[in-house]
Each structure stands twice: as C-alpha cells, then as structure tokens.
Design goal:
By secondary structure, this protein is mostly helical. Helices cover 65% and strands 6% of the residues. Strands 1-4 form a two-stranded antiparallel sheet. It has a two-stranded antiparallel sheet with strand order 2-3.
Length: 257
Amino acid sequence: MSDLKKNEELDGPGRPAPDQVAFAQVARGYYTPIVALFTATLIISNICATKGVEFFGDQSVTLGPLQILPIVTDGAFFLFPLAYILGDVLSEVYGFRATRRAIYYGFAALLLTVLCFAVVLALPPAGFYENQAALESVVGPVPRLVIAGLAGYLVGQLLNSATLVMIKERTKEKHLWARLIGSTVVGEFADTLIFCSIAAGAIGIQTWQQFVNYVVIGFLWKTLVEIVVMPITYRVIALLKKHEPGYAPVRSGALRS
C-alpha cells in the first residue's frame, strides 16, 4: 500500500500526515481584495464620520423646511460613496450571495471596531498619558455612529445589491447604467435616512432644518458621486468580467446566484 493511501486511511481523504508540511490553497480571483477594500472603507468612514462638517457657514439660505445653506454633513462624505461603488461592483460581477457574504464580513468588522473602542476607553490610562479626555471626545461618539452605520449599512447595502441583481435579471448584460443608478438610489436613500436618524445627535445636529439638510445633501451627494465615477465603475466591472475565471451564465434566480 502506498504512503499516500496509508495517510488517507489514517487521516482522512486529502488530510496531511503529522510528518508532512501542508498549507491551504488561496482561491484565485479578485473577490478577496475587493472585499478587503470594501470593509476598510466602511471602518474608516465610521471613524471619519465623528466630525461634523459645515460648508458656507456664514450663509443662511432656506427653502421651506429645507436648509440650503450652510451645508451640513460629516467627515466621511468624501469616502463613504466608495463603499456603494464597491458594492455595485461586487453585485454586478459576483452576484447577490457573494455580495451578501461581503456585507456580513463588513458588519462583523464594524462590530469589532465598536467593541474595541469601548474597551480602549474603559482601560485605565497610564499616569503619563494626558490624552484620555481628547480620546473620549473623538472616539466616544463612535459607538453610536457605528450603531447608526451598522443599521444603515446593513439595510442599504442589502437593498442596493438586491435591486441591482433583480434589474440585471431583466436587462441581462445590457443597460449597466440603469442597474448602477437604480440600485444606488434605493440603497443610498435607505442607508442615509437610517444613518442620519441615529447619528445626527452624535455629530451635533440639533434642528429639523439641519437634519433635513443632512439627509438630503448626503443622499444627493452620494448619488451624484455614483454618476460622476460611472465611467470608472464601467471599466472596473468590464476588466473583472474579462479576467475572472468563474464569470459565467447562471441558471438560478438572481437572488440565489
């Protein structure tokens, strides 16, 4: 009997013997690095969002209940749209199930982030450490913002992905622009409304006018970014479809693929 056959009988099919060196094979493709960037974007965005930002603070323009100026937002306004662009790429190329798995990875990473910040804040500061108050003022709001981010992100990203793949089921490989814009409008609106409703107080928003401004400007900004960078998104998706070895037609429904 060969040594390999003996090892299979003793350790199971494909299992290495104790005197062998073995490693697991990493799956090929671009899914893993995209998910890593997707998750990093979510974590960094939730930290940046602790800062309230105001543009044209010396101006005051209102339209009914909507405050036009000053523009009120948070410090993550320039980065967070990337999470939805990456979510669109994942949904278009890898399908709903793979994107849902990436969303759960991001959810777990954000949850770990808020737990770690809570532990760090609770730890007794060293006698020479003089920045405890500053750390609490910056990181302290993060748990509330992460809760807002978790809720908004989970609902928004799942709606974004589901909407894109359902539109794709009807349009097939045509009309990518409709899938990108349609999914963004649905997902970003849900995400923005949920996030802003929970996070507004944490960044200092106090009036209804500021809140409406925060929601509307955030939603319009994220949607506009999606439209502006659409040529880049098109290019990235085309390259992935061309070079991903597993990209092929599926027979199951869009939400099952």
